[in-house]
Amino acid sequence: MAPDRSLDHLPLVGPGTRRGGGLRPVARLEVSPHDVQRLPDDELGGHLLAGFGVTATAVETVTGGTEARVWRVGTDDGRTWAARWSLAGVPVGQHVAAAFALDCPGGGQAVPARATDGSLGYACADGTLTLTSWLDGPTAIAEPLTAPTWFALGRLVGRLHAVDPAVVPGLPVVDFTPGWWRGTFDAVERARDVPAVDDRARAVLETWDASRRRVLLVREHTERIGHRLHELQRHEPTALPMVVCHGDPHQGNVVVTGPGSVALVDWDSAVLAPAEHDLMFVLGGTYSARPVTEQDAAEFFTGYGRVDIDDDRLAYARGVRLLEDASDWARRALDPARPDEERDEAHGILRTVLGPDGLVDLVLG
Asked: Which segments carry the region annotation Disordered (predicted)?
């Protein structure tokens, strides 16, 4: 009998759950998210009232995944909110976003709401519900950044990197050791050694194999740099400047709120790390509406201010991003428990990451 190629053994983690060389850890799930009862739409209003004391008058689903859900919520006081439920607890990024909003009064940033008990989240439906002010405007993918908004983004990221880490207790720290991606990467590698469970899995592994040599090269190079930076961090901690980072400021997480203003959303990957962890999204760019030009970068750094980019730190940040994205999207696409359309979407993203002009090309230069 052919071995079962179910990917139940694959680590159930994904972007935003990074540790060590990646970013923040969360509690590991012991069951598939498909077996977890997610928060139903018709129960959201009751939980918002109980947890945050707000009365929802209009609810619109924005994303409806199994591990996290987002709604646009109008309330009886005329305000609009982004409600997010996820299987994880309150992300430390909520605390970063709250601190940053206080540091930028009137700066147009999304402001997390406090629950009735004073916390930034409300436990319900085996997960956590958070509430953040809604930002009107397209993302920078839908509406490419202009010179004024590149400048505004640089100024915004510069202000974030100047935030005192002491105001965000519990902020995870990058330690340059292999993160969650290593277990996921190794599980995908093991999946190559047994017969594919279906045609979708077979196609995913063909995509993986076509770029496997280059991805393994990135892994070896990233782990070697990481070891060197880890030793430097241990013996000369002041030699590695660390700042409060958003951790994932790609253009899909930048909202254009006006002709010369932008805001950052999705703080789940907030981390204390070298500035290059954020700046890599400008230096070459990932998840962009179009290639980031030298002029774009010049506008950004005019707003950001003077910075000395370290080649090793930049290469490490890019390498980790590639290893996280490639392994996680492969895991999702291989998982037969996921809906077919979700697997197909994950495979499409994997092809983009590993294909011509994708992230693997950027990392290898």
From this structure: 1-23
